[in-house]
What we know:
This protein starts with a strand and ends with a helix. It is elongated and about 65 Å long. It has helices at 15-20, 78-83, 96-112, 114-122, 147-158, 185-188, 211-214, 234-243, 284-306; strands spanning 2-6, 25-29, 45-48, 65-68, 87-89, 139-143, 162-167, 178-181, 194-197, 222-225, 248-251, 271-273. By secondary structure, it is an alpha/beta fold.
Amino acid sequence: xxxxxxxxxxxxxxxxxxxxxxxxxxxxxxxxxxxxxxxxxxxxxxxxxxxxxxxxxxxxxxxxxxxxxxxxxxxxxxxxxxxxxxxxxxxxxxxxxxxxxxxxxxxxxxxxxxxxxxxxxxxxxxxxxxxxxxxxxxxxxxxxxxxxxxxxxxxxxxxxxxxxxxxxxxxxxxxxxxxxxxxxxxxxxxxxxxxxxxxxxxxxxxxxxxxxxxxxxxxxxxxxxxxxxxxxxxxxxxxxxxxxxxxxxxxxxxxxxxxxxxxxxxxxxxxxxxxxxxxxxxxxxxxxxxxxxxxxxxxxxxxxxxxx
Length: 308
C-alpha cells in the first residue's frame, strides 16, 4: 500500500518509521502544490491538508483513504470523495484545547485591558484601569457544540459563566447549560455578552453572521471567530463595527488568508486581528500523530478483515 505524506504535518524523528512498520510504502511531498513524487494513480492513501486544491481527485484512481490534518472538510471535494467510496478522516479533537484556551485568553485580554497595560508599561505610565470586567456571571453563546465548542464551553463554565450552545442538531452535552437550534440565534444574539464561533464552514453556515445579527449585539459584546472567516459577512462586520464602537470583534480567521495588507480590518480600533494562530500548541503533534496512527490502524484492520 502506497502512502503519500505531505508537509502539512511536521513529522518528528521516528514517526515516519512507525508508519513504515505498518507495512506501508512511504512517499513524501513537502509542498502540496508541487508535483507528486509518484503517479497519482499509484497512491492508495494520503495524509494531507489542502492537496486537492492543487491536484484533481480524479487523477487518484486507486485512492482509498484520506487523513486530513485539518478539522474542517471545506478544503476537499467531499461529495466526490464520498461518491467514490474513499474513507476520509479529519483531525477531530486535535486542536480543540489550544483553540479553547486562546478564546478565553483573548476575551480576558479585552476584559482586563491587557493592551492598555502593555502600552502603559512601554510609556512608563502609571495609570490604573477602573473599567475592568469579569467573566463570572456573563452569558456566553457558542455557535457550534462539537469538539472545539465543548472545550470552549468547559473553560467558560469554570469561570461561572452561563454557557449556551447553538447547533444544527440538538443533543445532550454536559459542557453546556443548554443547546439550542442554530436558527434561534438570529433573534437571541442580543442576549449575550460573549459570542464565540466554532462552527464548520458549510453551505448552511456561510455568511450566517450578517447584518441582522451584528447590528443587534448587546452593548459591549465581545465577538470571537475561531472557525472560518466565511461564516461572517465581512462587509457587514466592517460597517457595523465602524459605528458600534462598544463591540469588540476578535478575529483569527478570514475569507482570504493571509489577510490582505489593504484590508480595513487591520485598522478598525475595536477589531483584534491574529494570523489564524489559535490552533497552534506544543501538544498538537502528539494528538495529531495519535489520530493518524489510530485511524490508519483501524482502516488497515478493517481492510484485512474484508479479505477473509
